[in-house]
Amino acid sequence: MADALFVVLRKVALSLGEGALVKIGTDVVEAAPILTDFEHGMRQTEGELLVLQAFIGQVRAQKAGDKAFGAWLDQVRDVAHEVEDIVDEYAYLTTQAMDASSFFKRKFHQVKNFAAWQKLPIRISQVEARVRRLSEMRSRYGISVGEQDRGSKLQQSNQFSASDFAYLTDDSEIVGHGEEIERLTQWLLEENQDRTLIAIFGMGGLGKTTVASSVYKNQKIRRTFDCHAWVTVSQTYQAEELLREIMNQLIEQRASLASGFMTMSRMRLVEMIQNYLRDKKYFIVLDDVWDKDAWLFLNYAFARNNCGSKVLITTRRKDVYSLAVHSHVIELKTLNYAESWELFCKKAFFALEGNICPKNLTSLVEKVVDKCQGLPLAIIAIGRILSCHGLDEWEWAFFYNQLNWQLANNSELSWISTVLNLSLDDLPSHLRSCFLYCSLFPEDHFIKRKQIAKLWIAEGLVDERGDGTTMEEVAEHYLAELTHRSLLQVIERNASGRPRTFVMHDLVREVTSITAEKEKFAVIHGHVGTTQVSHDARRLCIQKSADSQNSLANSHLRSFILFDNLVPSSWINDVSSRFRLLRVLGLRFTNIEQMPCGVTELYNLRYLDISYTKVKQIPASFRKLMHLQVLDLRFTCVEELPFEITTLTNLRHLHVAAVHDLQERSLNCFSATKIPGNICGLKNLQSLHTVSANEDLVSQLGNLTLMRSLTIMNVRQSYIAELWNSLTKMPNLSVLIIFASDMDEILDLRMLRPLPNLKLFWLAGKMKGGVLPSIFNKFEKLTQLKMDWSGLNKDPISSFSYMLTLVDVWFFGAYCGEYLSFCAGWFPNLKSLHIADMEHLTRIEIEDGTMMGLHHLELVGLRNMRLVPKGIKYIRTLRQMILTDMPKELVESLRGSDAHIVQHVPNIHIFDSSDPEAVNNFIFWPHLAKKYGSGVTKYDPRK
Fold it and tell me: Rounded CA gap, 824 and 822, in Å?
């Protein structure tokens, strides 16, 4: 709940701090007295909400499960949402009033919305009254800071937790994690003298406690130590109780009673444990550690006595497991499919001989096991429930089809929600809102770092910290924190090692979406369990059956994301105009050819994604979207933007590009978009792709000093000096793509200054004199390099060999010579190499010791190269080779006499571009999906 208040309070602060009140007061004279009351009321409300936020943060952990407290929180949430509506309505009216397209239109809006202005103070008064009632209710029902009541404690003491059952699990019931248990056993039996801290890390429900208990109860291990103890730390540990429990397990009961340690202070307990362990070899397990501060005082208690003692920690948090010796860390993964099947059958068919799945249930069991995605907690819990359903196929099918509902309502599955929600409830307010937002995406959706960051920022969920730090960088920090807490998993990194793509475990997503819907944060329509969209939902994601929502209208919506690409454009046009206060509109892959007419009336809009659609034109009325931060028009038919785009001074990311050649083997593989007018006012712009160069634009780019990523096409030599002068004014530029105007344009880069922070450089066009300019010697951070049609006369490989940072290299038609040589020691970090369309190339020499980390090699259109490079046999790390349009002789030798050269390469694929469907499906669709996000395969530029 505190997360809803967090978002609202940020909006209130922004509305009071931007100086907009003065500006609007001069423009709308009729509203000026109302604005004074508005500001006063907002400041009063802000103060009350700050106190409520602090109170909730203080008592939330104590009151978990308290129904009265939960009902009161629902009331607080409703009040917070009402305040948010007032603030956003104010912002809407403000922006509309400042739409100065004409004097008469401005006056029309002032008269039209005067009633709405008058309602603002009334609504604030009503909110103030509701806040006062919340305080009265809190007192009336005894919701206060203090100890949990006796009944609540008694109820907890009578219940076994999932951790208890995991500890009690017998080794015969454990499936998977055999290697991890064996490694732990070896570490615990090591004879080194230093005290060793070992950690088991992973998301909730993976079996960390089960693995730890397996080694803890191993008699061979126990006999190795003089004493041992197991304590569950948990999120709400009390230091004194933890120390007493450890001491209680270490010494005899009689001695513990005599020592009087039940009344000792924390410091005295630490000293007592120190003294007891001073000359002993001990083994202590700290299960479920959430806070590294817990280790700070335990570190003093556990004596470092050179007796070979061991401490084992289980945790969901990376900052905790980092306390351990780096070589003594185990990160648990989900079970593979075979292990998941075995574990499920053990639980579901325990009464059947051999735990064999009946044939009539095989397909359903496969679906259930798939749904659990290797999470032991879910496999065990669902398997136990279904074991009571007999072998009736209908009952099993009904249960599976209602699994989402079961997770939310079946008390027997509450363990899954409880364990997974522990991580959610441990999040601070700002992270909790961001994580709830992640549940909007469909099952198995790849969450792209850049996309989710833009969405969070547009929704106002990201702090603006100043000091030169962008909100995108803050959002990236949030993502790192969510991965460190085992809530998101990184599945792909870019060439610099930064996480690029994340995924949320499907059951974590289900549980999180249940919470999001319950708290009115968001609703996902299109999966089992959701039929109609709540009127109070703040965010809506429609995954399928969009047109079943015939009466969809919600003035509360802040995000509307549509994944259903089958819905007719008439439906989209109809609903898009209904969401007055919308901040995020996602229409990617939808079937539209024109911009929905109501979009330009969404004055609060921050994020608009209409990529992968057939939209051809952006209307001049886009000038109304004064708050717009992100405009994504990639893979559309837009070739020119209106002049009015240059007035959107809050734009941070502008993407306009169509792909004409999926294989990127031509100079016109992308479209170049024209931007008329002066772009100097777009000072917040950080990424711009792709823009057509002209004499004025290249000089204006120098004003965009926050630019980090730029694609500019149709570049002529006469623009180069001014263009480069502008680029040097962008200190954080890390991605630069430059295309010459045509194949005959010669670019002279010889006298240019380096760009120190460049990480990706793609240069398409002929180089002056066929010589590589010396500027390439200064790109010290470059990780990705692509050169197309450069017309180089000298082997360029040696010129780049010193670049130790290079990870990906593409040479497409860049070299006119016959030989390329890769010498020993060159390109130590290179992971992928692409060589294409070099007409005269006949041989590639590869010495032993070069490219020692290469994973991917692609040779394309080298029609005079008839010999397989023999040096490929030295690259033992090579995992994939792709050959497209290569000579018949080379292909035959690869399959015959030279097969021994590539026998260590597990994946070799040979294509001919005369079969473009095969090439695109295997190479280019996955490449585009990795670059632009999942779902890209729905787009075909030929249609």
Answer: 7
